[in-house]
Write a structure and sequence with these properties.
alpha/beta; about 270 residues; elongated
Length: about 270
Amino acid sequence: MKTDDQQVLRAIIVDDEGLARKGLAMRLQEFNNVELVEEACNADEALNLITIHEPDLVFLDIQMPGMTGLEMLSEIQADVLPMIVFVTAYDTFAVEAFKVHAVDYLLKPVEKDRLAEAISKASHQRQGRVVSQEKEKLLDLAVSLTGKSHDAISELIGNSEKASYSERLAIKDGSSTTFVPIRDIDWIDAAGDYMCVHVNNETHIMRTTMRELEAALNPVIFQRVHRSTIVNLERITKVSSHINGEYYLTLNCGSRLKISRSYKEKVKHFF
């Protein structure tokens, strides 16, 4: 069965009943975006497998000998906590299940449509986690380059999301105008009275000031790292220091940009 989100969810089944595990595993074979990586017959085995494989999703029985599924969740380290879909023969645990933020609660025998719904929910939740992680990485980088606190940058992000920034930069060249998507810009540097806009290994020249250009760009994405250089934070892949104390940024296009001394303190925590 094809689903709306084709990102693969790595999953583990935890159930003390062998037939239940086998039945659910067969059901999951119908979903192209789910990869069953392991099965566990009890909570202790499951905890070990979760630590090893760090799955995206766990289909978890509640009533098991020894440690219950609900008790097991409290033993999982927060940094490897997967999404949980409870699969049980009892509907009496639904309230407790959602108190621990379960993605869904399926009753045995699992119906195909309900399983598809649970997987769809998990896919959307996972996408939300990925977006959140990327935003956090960008926030950390913005903090390091600006020297501002996380709270200050978060407020800036909130304000910038409300503010209106153009999605394209109009670059005039004689009688023609080239429209460059803002997010495609790698970096910008000053050359006298002109700005060199570097985009996908091409350089566009425009007559404007660094201050005017900086004001037109979203500060969450673009930051000045030198008196004459603005960089797209999303393009940075590496920050490195040299023996002489100079710092450099490496972009995903392969370009290396020097960070001015005034920014040195703001990137020290990378090393």
